[in-house]
C-alpha cells in the first residue's frame, strides 16, 4: 500500500560509555549499538537510514587521532557486522540499495557508505555545508571524517534545503516545525533534529503493519534521558554537541511526541533497550551479528 514501508533495524558495530556522560546515574559502562535502518518501499526499493561503522571506519581508526577516538569510546566492528554483510544474509545485494539517508556525518553513521556504490545520498544542506566549509580543526571537533565519503559522493548527493520543506501535519504536527516528504507519497518524512550535530535529521514513517516509527539518530542516546530530562554534563556538551540549546529543544519536541503518542516507536540510533523491545515485537526485523561474533 502506498505510504507504508517495511522497517528493519540493523547494528554494525558497538561502542561503550560511562552512563554519567549522558547525565544518567553511575553504574557499569553501557554498550551502545551503532544502529541503522533498512526501509523497504514498495516502489522506491531498499533505502538505508545511516549504515553504522564499516570497512572505511575500521581503516581510519587504525591510526592517530582516529585511533584515540576508538580507544576512548571502545568502538568495535568486524567485517561480518557491516551493513552490506548483514543485508547479504537477508538476501539483499549491496547494489540493490537505492538510497542512503544520512542523519549526520559522524563515523558511526557513515562508516559503511563505501559499500553501496549504486545508492544516492540524502543529507541536510546545513550538515553538508559544515563538511565543506570546516577546516582541519573544525572537522576534528565536529567528528567529521571526510575520508569515509566515497570519491563520487558529491555527484550522488541530494540536499534537503528550503525547497520542498513543509509543515508537519497529522500526528507529526505534535513535533512542530517542518519536514520533507522524500517521495511525495507520505511514506518517509525527513525531520530536522538539530543540536547534537549540525543539520541532523531523523525519519518518520509508518510500517505496513501499522507501526508509527521515528528514527531519531543521535537526538538522544538512551530512552532514560527522555524520562529524566537532565542536562548533559559539560564535557559531553563540549565534545558531543553542536548547539546545546537546539539539543534541548529537539529533546523537548520528541518527549512531547512520545507522551502524546504512547503507541509510537521513538528509535534513537544507539539505545540497546529500544532495540531489544523492537526485536521482541518484530523478531525477524533486526539485522545483527550474534553476541559472540561481534569482533573487535
Ligand atoms: Zn553523532
Ligand atoms: Zn552516533
From TrEMBL:
Residues 33-270 form the Metallo-beta-lactamase domain. It comes from the Bacteria. InterPro entries: MBL_superfamily_lactonases, Metallo-B-lactamas, RibonucZ/Hydroxyglut_hydro. Pfam families: Lactamase_B. GO terms for molecular function: hydrolase activity; metal ion binding. Its cofactor is Zn(2+). CDD domains: metallo-hydrolase-like_MBL-fold. Keywords: Hydrolase, Metal-binding, Zinc. Belongs to the metallo-beta-lactamase superfamily. This is Metallo-beta-lactamase superfamily protein. It comes from Lysobacter antibioticus.
Amino acid at each position: 500500500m502506498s505510504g507504508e514501508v517495511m522497517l528493519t533495524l540493523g547494528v554494525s558495530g558497538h561502542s561503550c560509555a560511562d552512563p554519567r556522560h549522558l547525565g544518567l546515574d553511575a553504574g557499569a559502562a553501557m554498550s551502545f549499538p551503532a544502529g541503522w535502518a533498512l526501509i523497504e518501499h514498495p516502489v522506491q526499493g531498499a533505502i538505508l537510514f545511516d549504515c553504522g561503522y564499516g570497512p572505511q571506519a575500521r581503516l581510519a581508526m587504525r591510526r592517530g587521532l582516529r585511533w584515540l577516538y576508538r580507544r576512548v569510546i571502545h568502538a568495535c566492528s568486524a567485517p561480518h557486522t557491516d551493513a552490506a554483510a548483514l543485508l547479504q544474509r537477508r538476501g539483499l545485494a549491496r547494489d540493490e540499495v537505492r538510497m542512503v539517508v544520512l542523519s549526520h556525518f559522524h563515523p558511526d553513521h557513515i562508516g559503511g557508505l563505501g559499500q553501496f556504490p549504486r545508492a544516492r545520498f540524502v543529507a541536510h544542506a546545513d550538515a553538508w555545508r559544515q563538511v565543506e566549509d570546516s577546516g582541519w580543526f573544525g572537522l576534528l571537533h565536529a567528528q567529521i571524517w571526510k575520508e569515509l565519503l566515497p570519491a563520487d559522493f558529491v555527484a550522488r548527493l541530494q540536499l534537503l534545503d528550503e525547497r520542498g520543506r513543509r509543515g508537519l501535519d497529522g500526528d507529526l504536527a505534535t513535533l512542530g516545525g517542518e519536514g520533507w516528504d522524500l517521495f511525495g507519497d507520505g511514506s518517509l518524512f525527513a525531520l530536522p533534529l538539530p543540536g547534537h550535530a549540525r543539520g541532523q535529521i531523523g525519519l518518520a514513517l509508518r510500517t505496513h503493519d501499522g507501526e508509527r516509527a521515528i528514527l531519531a539518530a543521535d537526538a538522544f542516546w538512551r530512552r532514560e534521558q527522555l524520562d529524566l530530562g537532565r542536562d548533559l554534563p559539560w564535557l559531553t556538551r563540549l565534545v558531543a554537541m553542536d548547539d546545546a540549546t537546539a539539543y534541548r529543544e529537539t529533546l523537548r519536541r520528541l518527549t512531547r511526541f512520545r507522551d502524546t503518542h504512547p503507541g509510537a516507536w521513538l528509535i534513537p540510533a544507539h539505545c540497546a533497550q529500544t532495540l531489544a523491545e523492537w526485536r521482541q515485537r518484530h523478531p525477524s526485523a533486526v539485522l545483527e551479528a550474534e553476541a559472540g561474533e561481534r569482533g573487535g
